[in-house]
Amino acid sequence: MSLLSVRLLLIVSLALCAASPRPRDPRIGKGSRQPMNNGWIAVHLEGTPSEIGYQHGALLHHEIAELQKVIALELERDTKKDWDFYRKAAEEILWPKVDQEYREELQGIVEALNKRRIRLDIWDIVALNGFLELGPYYVPYFDKLHGEKNPKPPVPERCSAFIATGSYTKDGKIVLGHNAWTGYLNGQRWNIVFDVVPAKGNAFIMDGLPGVIHSGDDFAINAAGLAITETTISNFSGFDPEGTPEFVRARKAMQYAESIDEFSAIMIEGNNGGYANNWLIGDNKTGEIASLELGLKNVTLRRTTDGYFSGSNYPVNEKLIAEETAFPVHDKSVSANARRIRWDQLLTAHKGQIDVAAGQSFLSDSIDSFTGKDDPNERTLCGRIDLSPRGMTGWIPPYGIGGAVQNKVADSAMISAMSFYGAIGPQCGPPFSAREHLAKYPDNRWATQYLRDLPARPWTRFQAAARP
Question: Whole-model pTM?
Answer without folding.
Answer: 0.93
